[in-house]
Write a structure and sequence with these properties.
Blueprint: E1 7-14, H1 22-38, E2 43-45, H2 63-79, E3 86-95, E4 98-107, E5 110-116, E6 141-143, E7 146-149, H3 154-157, H4 167-173, E8 178-183, H5 191-206, E9 210-214, E10 216-219, E11 222-225, E12 229-231, E13 237-240, E14 247-256, E15 259-261, H6 272-290, E16 296-299, H7 304-317, E17 322-326, H8 334-347, E18 350-353, H9 357-367, H10 378-399, E19 402-403, H11 409-414, H12 435-445, H13 463-467, H14 487-499, H15 504-509, H16 514-526, H17 528-532
Parallel strand pairs: 1-2, 2-3, 7-8, 8-9, 16-17, 16-19, 17-18
Antiparallel strand pairs: 1-14, 3-4, 4-5, 6-7, 9-12, 10-11, 12-13, 14-15
C-alpha cells in the first residue's frame, strides 16, 4: 500500500489577468508554472476564470470566446505532460450545451478534473445567474494522492438559505483534506475583514485548512486587491500575500496527525485610507495600460480634486506620462494659478496654461441674440466648464492621451458637475471617494505613498490646496458652500442615502435637518441622468454609482420624510401566500 504523501507544495499565483486576453493570460500561467516548478511545487493555483479574465461579463456568452478559452486550457493541459506541477485554473466551460464558471485541474498532459461553481452571486457588482448554469456540489479532486476540495468563490461566501448549496460541507463529508478557493473578489473598504470571517466560518465548520486565492488588478470600475491568504485548521494564519501587487508564493504544507499545516510568509496589509488610495492608483494604472493609452492629461484648477487626481496619475503612470493643463478665466484667482503651478512642479509633470477667455467670449457673442433680454445665470457658468472640456478633449484627440475626470462622489451624488464640461474624460479615479475623504487622502499622500508608486515622496500637494475652501470659480467669490451644506454634513447624509438606502425619516431622526435632508435627496434623484453619462471610475465603497446602484432615470417616486405606513397583515388572505391550490374567490 502506498504511503500517503507527507508534504504538499502549492504555489499561489496571485496575478493580474486581462479580460479577453486569452493568449496573454495563458502566457502568464506558463511563466508562473515555471516558477512553481523551480520551487519544487506539486500544484500551482490561479484565480477564478483566470484564462478569460474576470469578470468577463457578456463577453463570456460569445461562442468564439468560449472556444478560445477552451483551446488555451487544452494547450496548458498538454504542457503538463512534462512532469512538472499540476495546474488548477479558472475558465468558462461549455458542457452539454450549458456554460459553467469552472475550475480545471490539468496534470500529466490531460484535463484531469473539472469543478463547476455551484453558488452564483447575483447582487452588487455580480450578475452571474444570467451568464452561467449552476454546477453540482461535487466531491474533492485528487492531486498527487491528496484529496483537494475546490469551492469557487461564492461557494464559501453564502450562508445557509433555500438557494444555497453547501459545497464545503459536501467536500468535508466526501473526504477532502484541504480546501483551495479560487476567487475574483473586488476591493471595497474593510473587505479583508469580511473575507477572513467567511473563511474562518468555513474552516470551523469543516475542520479543514483553507487557501483563499484572489486575483489582483483593475478591470474597468473594479479593482481586485489580491491579499490572498491561507488558514490552518486551528484558524492560525498559514500565509498572507500582499495587497495590490502580483505575488507568486510557494507554500510548503506538512501532514500531521491533525491534518495539513503550513507556516508561510505573512505580508503586512495596507488598510483604511491607504488601501483606498492604493486601489485608486491601481485602477487608473490598469485602465490606462490595458486599454493602450500612451498617457493621461487633466485640467489642473488649483483645487483639491484635480490635485489628488494628478498625484494618483503620477503614482500610477510616472510623471512623464501625465500632462496638466490650467485653463483660467476671469474668475480664476491668482492663488489658484500659483497653487496649480506648485503642484505641477512638485509632481514633475508637463504643465501649460491655456486661457479660455477668447473662447468663452466667442460663445457668448454667438449666443447674444438668442439670449437677448435673459439674465445671466448658471448657463454662462456651464459655458466655462464646457469650453475647458472641449479643449481638453481636443488635446486628447491630437495626442492620444486619455482625459482623467476629477469629480468626487459628493459632487456626482448631487449633480455638482457639468455634462460635456468637467465631466468629460475616459476614467475617474476618485469617482467613489467622498469629498471629506479627498481631503484625508490628499494629506495622507503628503506623508506616505503606496508600494510601487512612481511619484516622488514627500509633500506633492501644496498645503494651501488642502486648507483653502473649495470653489468651482465659475463666478466672483464663489465657494462650494454657497449651494451645498458643509461637506462633513453632506457626506454623512449621502452615505446614509446611497450606501445604506436609509429612509429619510430615519436620517432626520438621527439629528439631521429635515429641509437639508429632503433637498439632498432631491438632488441625488434628479442627477441620475448625469451619472448615467459619467466616465467609469474606481469602486472603493460598499455601493458605487454604476454596477452597484442601478436607479432609473425616469423616476417619480420621492420619499416624503414621513415614517412609513406599517403593513396591514389583516388584508392578506392566507390562500394568497404562494399556494399551489386553486384560487377560490
Amino acid at each position: 500500500m502506498t504511503e500517503p504523501a507527507a508534504q504538499f507544495t502549492i504555489t499561489l499565483a496571485q496575478l493580474n489577468p486581462t479580460v479577453g486576453d486569452v493568449a496573454g493570460n495563458a502566457a502568464k500561467a506558463r511563466a508562473a508554472r515555471a516558477r512553481a516548478r523551480a520551487d519544487g511545487a506539486d500544484l500551482v493555483v490561479f484565480s477564478e476564470l483566470f484564462i478569460a479574465g474576470y469578470p468577463p461579463e457578456d463577453l463570456v456568452l460569445k461562442p468564439a470566446f468560449q472556444a478560445a478559452c477552451r483551446a488555451a486550457i487544452e494547450e496548458l493541459a498538454r504542457d503538463t505532460a512534462d512532469g512538472g506541477p499540476a495546474v488548477l485554473i479558472g475558465s468558462p466551460w461549455v458542457e452539454d450545451g450549458k456554460l459553467y464558471n469552472a475550475c480545471a485541474l490539468l496534470d500529466e498532459g490531460r484535463i484531469a478534473a473539472l469543478r463547476f461553481k455551484a453558488n452564483l452571486p447575483n447582487y452588487g457588482v455580480f450578475d452571474e445567474k444570467r451568464l452561467f448554469a449552476r454546477g453540482p456540489a461535487a466531491g474533492p479532486v485528487t492531486i498527487r494522492g491528496i484529496r483537494v476540495g475546490v469551492p469557487i468563490c461564492e461557494d464559501i461566501w453564502l450562508e445557509e438559505s433555500e438557494d444555497y448549496e453547501n459545497v464545503v460541507e459536501c467536500l468535508a463529508e466526501t473526504g477532502a483534506e484541504i480546501l483551495i478557493v479560487p476567487n475574483g473578489s473586488p476591493y471595497a473598504r474593510d473587505k479583508n475583514d469580511l473575507r477572513l470571517s467567511i473563511a474562518v466560518a468555513r474552516v470551523t465548520e469543516s475542520g479543514l485548512p483553507l487557501i483563499y486565492l484572489n486575483e489582483v488588478g483593475g478591470q474597468d470600475e473594479l479593482v481586485f486587491d489580491g491579499a490572498s491568504f491561507a488558514l490552518n485548521a486551528d484558524l492560525s494564519v498559514a500565509a498572507q500575500l500582499p495587497a495590490f501587487e502580483d505575488s507568486i508564493t510557494t507554500l510548503r504544507w506538512s501532514r500531521s496527525e491533525a491534518g495539513w499545516r503550513c507556516a508561510g510568509p505573512v505580508a503586512p496589509l495596507v488598510e483604511g485610507d491607504q488601501a483606498d488610495y492604493a486601489a485608486c492608483v491601481l485602477g487608473l494604472r490598469d485602465y490606462v495600460r490595458k486599454n493602450g493609452f500612451p498617457g493621461v492629461l487633466l485640467g489642473i484648477s488649483g483645487g483639491i480634486d484635480s490635485a489628488l487626481c494628478a498625484a494618483i496619475a503620477v503614482d500610477a503612470l510616472g510623471a512623464e506620462r501625465v500632462r496638466g493643463v490650467m485653463l483660467p478665466f476671469r474668475f480664476t484667482a491668482q492663488v489658484s494659478l500659483d497653487d496649480a503651478a506648485k503642484l505641477a512642479a512638485a509632481l514633475g509633470i508637463r504643465y501649460e496654461v491655456l486661457p479660455i477667455a477668447q473662447a468663452v467670449n466667442g460663445f457668448e457673442e454667438i449666443l447674444s441674440g438668442t439670449f437677448a433680454g435673459l439674465p445671466r445665470d448658471i448657463t454662462e457658468e456651464n459655458l466655462q466648464a464646457r469650453t475647458r472640456g472641449t479643449l481638453l478633449m481636443a488635446i486628447s484627440n491630437k495626442t492620444g492621451a486619455m482625459v482623467v475626470t476629477t469629480g468626487n462622489k459628493s459632487e456626482m451624488s448631487v449633480g455638482y458637475a457639468t455634462l460635456y464640461g468637467d465631466m468629460n474624460g475616459g476614467f475617474n479615479p476618485i469617482k467613489d471617494i467622498y469629498k471629506t475623504e479627498v481631503f484625508r487622502l490628499s494629506s495622507l499622500r503628503n506623508s506616505w505613498k503606496p508600494e510601487g508608486a512612481l511619484g516622488p515622496s514627500g509633500e506633492v500637494i501644496p498645503v494651501n490646496i488642502i486648507t483653502r475652501p473649495p470653489t468651482a470659480e465659475l463666478r466672483e467669490n464663489q465657494t462650494d458652500q454657497d449651494s451645498l451644506p458643509p461637506y462633513e454634513m453632506l457626506d454623512a447624509i449621502l452615505e446614509r442615502l446611497v450606501e445604506r438606502e436609509e429612509p429619510l425619516a430615519s436620517i432626520i431622526s438621527a439629528g439631521f435637518d429635515r429641509e437639508v435632508v429632503t433637498r439632498i435627496d432631491r438632488l441625488l434623484n434628479i442627477a441620475e441622468y448625469k451619472r448615467r453619462q459619467a466616465a467609469p471610475g474606481v469602486k472603493v465603497t460598499q455601493k458605487n454609482f454604476g454596477r452597484d446602484r442601478r436607479y432609473p432615470i425616469t423616476n417619480k417616486f420621492r420619499d416624503t420624510g414621513e415614517p412609513s405606513q406599517q403593513p396591514d397583515e389583516t388584508l392578506v388572505s392566507r390562500a394568497s401566500r404562494g399556494s399551489a391550490e386553486a384560487f377560490e374567490g
